[in-house]
Design brief:
Helix 1 runs antiparallel to helix 4 (66-87) and helix 5 packs across helix 6. Helix content is 50%, strand content 11%. It has helices spanning 21-42, 47-50, 54-59, 66-87, 99-109, 112-125, 173-176, 180-187, 193-203; strands at 130-137, 140-147, 160-166. It is mainly alpha-helical and 204 residues long. The structure holds manganese (III) ion. The site of manganese (III) ion has 7 residues, from helix 1.
């Protein structure tokens, strides 16, 4: 059973003008597509590993043979991260979270603006390519980041993801060129807080 790229849950131009259609098309079809192609290639002939879910594969990287471990970590991670990322954005979304998640953000970061500042700093401070994350860890919300395509599983066995942002240049270069800060600022307008709230409820 080979892994496959899930369809984007909205049209390529749904997130305009914040994320442009061409970027979404290349990002989903080519970048995510390549992670899946290369993951499947790495797992050729490994029927036991092929039978695992992507989550189990990434949680158990130690069980992956050393000669393909980096390929699975990078390409499997790319598949996992992007599959989640598409669902964390939505047309006409943005604004602020509601309910339990809003209350938890306020209690952990002082205010929604305080959280945004911390999360933005994590994205801006990630040198090179990677991801900014909001996770539940030891029962508390925390902002963190990972390099490359490392997933939040690598932030610790008990880290559970609530929100994630791709800060690779391929996510923003066509519209924002090198200005990652402008991309992050625009991204808040498409955050799907309903999905984040769902993840938060499951993580608690
Ligand atoms: Mn990406």
């Amino acid at each position: 059973m080979a892994f496959s790229v899930p369809p984007l849950p909205y049209p390529f131009d749904a997130l305009e003008p914040y994320i442009d259609a061409r970027t979404m098309e290349i990002h989903h079809d080519k970048h995510h597509g390549a992670y899946v192609t290369n993951l499947n290639k790495a797992l050729e002939g490994q029927s036991a590993l092929q039978a695992k879910s992507i989550d189990d594969l990434l949680k158990g990287l130690d069980a992956v043979p050393e000669n393909i471990r980096a390929a699975v970590r990078n390409n499997g991670g790319g598949h996992w991260n992007h599959t989640l990322f598409w669902t964390l954005m939505k047309k006409g979304a943005g604004g602020e979270p509601k309910g339990d998640l809003a209350a938890a953000i306020k209690s952990s970061f002082g205010s929604f603006a305080g959280f945004q500042e911390k999360f933005t700093a994590a994205g801006l401070g990630r040198f090179g390519s990677g991801w900014a994350w909001l996770v539940v860890k030891d029962g508390k919300l925390a902002v963190d980041s990972t390099p490359n395509q490392d997933t939040p599983y690598l932030l610790g066995a008990n880290a559970k993801v609530v929100l994630g942002l791709d800060v690779w240049e391929h996510a923003y270069y066509l519209k924002y060129q090198n200005v990652r800060g402008d991309y992050i600022k625009a991204w808040w307008n498409v955050v799907n807080w309903d999905k984040a709230a769902e993840l938060f409820a499951a993580a608690k």
